[in-house]
Design a protein that fits this description.
Layout lengths: L2 E2 L6 E2 L5 E6 L3 H4 L4 H4 L5 H5 L1 H13 L4 E6 L10 H5 L10 E2 L2 E2 L21 E5 L10 H8 L3 E7 L1 H14 L3 E10 L3 H16 L3 E3 L1 H4 L4
Parallel strand pairs: 3-4, 3-8, 4-7, 8-9, 9-10
Antiparallel strand pairs: 1-2, 5-6
Bound molecules: dicarbonimidic diamide.
Dicarbonimidic diamide binds next to helix 7.
Length: 219
Amino acid sequence: MPVIDAQPYAFEFPAGKLGLIVIDMQRDFVEPGGFGATLGNDVRPIAAIVPTVRRLLDGARAARLPIIHTRECHRPDLSDCPPAKLTRGKPSLRIGDPGPMGRILISGEPGADIVPELAALPGEIVLDKPGKGAFHATSLNKMLTDLGITHLLFAGVTTEVCVQTTMREANDRGYECLLVEDCTESYFPEFKRAALDMIRAQGAIVGWTAPLAKVLPAL
Ligand code: C5J
């Protein structure tokens, strides 16, 4: 069985049953003027991981892994955005407001799209999700079951919000999950560190972590 030298211990996966989920590498989180920036965040740390995520994607494509890209976004009429999400915080622009990249976090707008360097190729799945977790109100579990996937690699942003939420959802559904450490980022370095620690604590209570350099050889 292929094995990744991971923390807290080796991550084994059956060949043919491993998939990659890249979470929300959208212009709205990566570029100035998007949702992340309207919440008051410096987006530069997020933009910095794009080349590393691209290397992971290239490796997964060469190994012919099923690849799923998620996008956090809402219908133009906001019918899938609960008021609690819409009104939360005091952002300079709210979800659905017009911004420099179109309406903030709305499906079909330029800001909701994946950054061009990481765009999905034909045959890869692009999954729009209204929640932080990618299993909430989507058919992700059925897609993975239909593909025969039991083990998942995770990348994307932000580590402690959509990535960790989705990993926890996947873990509860019985998937074995590994987060690629340098292919995920947060607006808050201390939150990234804490999320990685939480995930692999107590004997991989949520899953495993490993740097890309340890993942690529196993693919
Ligand atoms: C956030 C995400 N942070 N993709 N979304 O609001 O993590």
